[in-house]
């Protein structure tokens, strides 16, 4: 009873960590290629969570070198995805708590339109617009949370409904017209508020000049990084972060451990909405206008980033760093394909394939499966996998022992 | 799981079955009614118009809706029902058209979301004797009374001619295409290519699908510039992509690149204003056909003969005429 | 019992099975004669489940020979096993909750009408027949999710019988059953063996094995240890075979009586009326003193767990009564509130209610007590957290490769210790324990008992619910008996204080009401 339970059901049963010492079944008598593979695998293991990203960066550097790997290009690439990245962080919180938030794209669209109207029609200053939009987003998120936690509506349905509600309000508010954020004053020059609004994300507008390097930093990139850092700390350091993981992992256990599950669920949806509200003004500045369709299908990109980054839709598993990596994979892949002028139709095919490949390569049990495969090769003939009906003709004679008995030992 | 709940469940199942059967029967009945209704009114009566719009949430179509409401008011005997928005959904548009047929509207206007899926519904309307006006995109039948639409090939050609004029000594052109699967995209591309064929010195050095979206325009332009492509002029299949690309070029300090767009919407955030602000060199008015649609409806009501196919011209908008065109099509204050 | 001249129903010889990095079985022997019940005994991880999976055809490759009725049998797939008349009832039930009883019994082998549709009538008739044979009067159309756990267990048996099995493997069939229901199951097993069916019976409950099994085969660490005739061995010997060392007292409760401490928890008229048809409580009086272990006994559905959950705030304010904790009035509100008031609950279902199994030992250990390691910034003080959890791991002797190991990789006993660590880190003055030793092996069980004893000695008041009467009688200073939500008996370890706790007396109180017994034991022959 001393060791951790082997219970070695082959399907899905992950062995306890570190059961494979060097003296394990793959001993030194392996063939050359196999033993070499065994030596390389652990090295790969430590980089594995990033292997998809590394792969794409490598392709970028090989095919385009400096064109890919320079600050302007990387800033542009990350900047183009920054709003979706911010949404992905919010969605990650919700997914961790075993929910889903389909409304973030529409919420961002609503906030984007609100921001554009605030700057274009009401000449409001940017320091007021951003918190106002965050508050608006948080309000919608709160409604999502209340619907899910109190009214017990499944989050998929609740946020699907909210997606429609927010989009409808967005379109009503804008009368289906896009609203520009470049607002000229009576003198024909941009108004002061419009000028400062562009700092939020219009290309060629940087912030913190002189503080972060002479040129400063492009705000969408800074915002995305900031959001990642803040929420990474929230999840990994605070008691609230722990509570999110517990609620997603096992809500009953969380409740019986004294955690206010209802509060946690409402809070994650509110935070997700708040982040969507934050992304709104950035989107409106990036496009120098708010389109009534802005953010359409962004929720899917956001969910994809979280899941590529290792978040489990079943809840309780995932990290902000993972989501950050997932977002980088998506945007850098797009960038690399664009820089190589790959045919638009093929881009769709390649994007889909690379995403699948990246997810497979990042699987924590991948190395285990490879090792198992190597062991099976070394073990000589292997039988069919578990659960499959074996070919009866293979079972030799009436004095039959199972075929693998012949394994040399 | 008491027996009463089981009884209830059975009752519900039965009720559902009855409903379904009724619906089926109704469907059959409506078929037999075909051919009746509509078309026997005098000129003085009120004519009710139903309008099924593919998607309200595109600025161009929002503009079309407003213009139609505006121009219909010129004809007192026409009454426009609330515009039905199909939200880019073929099935929804089909059911909206069928509802208008059920309501026995006097005239039906349809802006199809896609040709094929909407065709059977339009044929139903025709069979019910309702005169149909097709706006903007086509349908795969000719039972309609009149088709009104712009000529995307012609617009693309005009844009190409402007490029030939702008780059007499040849030059490098980049093309931001609309959603590749759409008809206007193909025609705007083909017309453009035909026109620039005049001058072999003009080369299309980059082309990408911008999906009609402004942020895509920005992103793709950034990638082109990163690739180090030498670009003299960008031809975008709509104004938002052109404006998005221009923003990226401006940020990279490439002020000498010229931009051409299409749509020319008379709204504050539209292409006409962008031309006035010198962000674009040209845009081409893609006419909504609202004015013509209202007139055609009035003609039908008056019992006059209308043209089966009305192709609308475009207007080349440059800084010189931008203000006038804007004033003509600006709907703010004219409706509601 | 069959004669030795006839070849055995089943003989497994020299069975070995490896998984990458783990040698799960080596040289294991198992013989079952027709009409015989063979107990398979071993601690968690000893290889019982792997051996049975080999027999059931789950593992296509293994070494060794399997013979059925003396002829070699190649069992490499579940289909092969089925062909050889081998049926298996897993510890975790394999029923589809949203389907009816009859549909579950015929799952994958549906009877069909001439038109090719499922013949529900025939299925229901046959299912009713099978269930009646098991003494179960559940309507075949009832959805399985509406059946009680004990009923579900018997439905599994019916499902296996429907296959016309010659050999039936039962893995921990009684872990969720109360004593009366265990009796009923035993009656069924005797009936089966009388018809010549061989049974392999896996259980941790030695007293059950003594009652039902003819022979017992013991495994340890994947190896065959030995086979004994049940009548010729003793519990002590079996325990020694299993753990490889002699084990002292099974229930190490100190002999002296603990009831002089101050009252930690007192509830008078604890009442909770269930909204969903589950057990209710009607005016239950419970009190526990410092250093005292009080047990709650009763049949399934008597309201035992509900007492603990009501006290722990699981039902919010829907549960009420005059309650004091450490002398101060207490109104149950929420589990969080209960924890702050010094209560802690080891819930009935380890994986379902207590642990976030995919997460680490550290995460789970500190989960309920996080507020104790909070910095002013509301972050977790990781060093203090780690030290605290490490301290408990040490004190409770949790066997884990490290604190960052996911608890799903630990054995059941060690998982339960993590749950206990989680509770203890909140420094409770009252510890509520619901089936604290269910489904864990003998060694770990004894350790949990020892820990309970130590905690009580340190002044913790413990209120424990268990379906195992010997455990309650062995461990508790007092045993309260519930029946249909009412207190029907109170027994003491010390005969001087009142009626003494004994299996028969407790059981009688648990079935105190005629109405209750007919309701719960409908269909039993006893």
Write a structural description.
The complex is a heterotrimer of chains A (409), B (336) and C (526). With 409 residues, chain A is mainly α. Chain A has a domain at 86-321. In chain A, 61% of the residues lie in helices and 2% in strands. Chain A is built from 15 helices and four strands. In chain A, the strands form two sheets. In chain A, strands 1-4 form a two-stranded antiparallel sheet. The longest helix of chain A is centred in the first third of the chain and has 26 residues, at 71-96. The two termini of chain A are 27 Å apart. In chain A, 49% of the residues are buried. Chain B is an alpha/beta fold and 336 residues long. Chain B folds into two domains: 47-144 and 289-312, Rossmann fold (3-Layer(aba) Sandwich); 152-285, Response regulator (Rossmann fold, 3-Layer(aba) Sandwich), CATH 3.40.50. Chain B is 46% helix and 18% strand. In chain B, helix 4 links the parallel strand 4 (107-110) and strand 5. The longest helix of chain B has 31 residues, at 3-33. Chain C has helices spanning 48-55, 78-83, 101-105, 120-133, 149-161, 179-194, 206-212, 235-243, 304-311, 335-340, 350-354, 361-366, 382-396, 412-424, 442-457, 469-475, 503-510, 514-520, and strands spanning 10-19, 22-32, 37-41, 63-68, 71-72, 86-89, 167-171, 198-202, 215-220, 223-229, 263-272, 281-289, 293-297, 319-325, 328-329, 343-346, 430-434, 461-465, 478-483, 486-492. The longest helix of chain C is centred in the middle third of the chain and has 16 residues, at 179-194. In chain C, 32% of the residues lie in helices and 23% in strands. In chain C, the strands form four sheets. A six-stranded mixed β-sheet of chain C has the order 6-7-8-3-9-10, sandwiched between helices. At the A-C interface, helix 9, helix 10 and helix 15 of A face helix 1, strand 4, helix 10, helix 11 and helix 14 of C.
Spell out the CATH superfamily of the largest domain in chain B.
Response regulator
Secondary-structure-derived class of chain A: mainly alpha
Proportion of strand residues of chain B: 15-25%
- Mass-distribution shape of chain B: globular
Q: In this structure, how is the largest beta sheet of chain A organized? A: 2 strands, antiparallel
Supply the helix-strand structural class of chain B.
alpha/beta
Number of helices of chain A: 15
Choose one word for the global shape of chain A.
globular
Strand order of the largest sheet of chain A: 1-4
Number of domains of chain B: 2
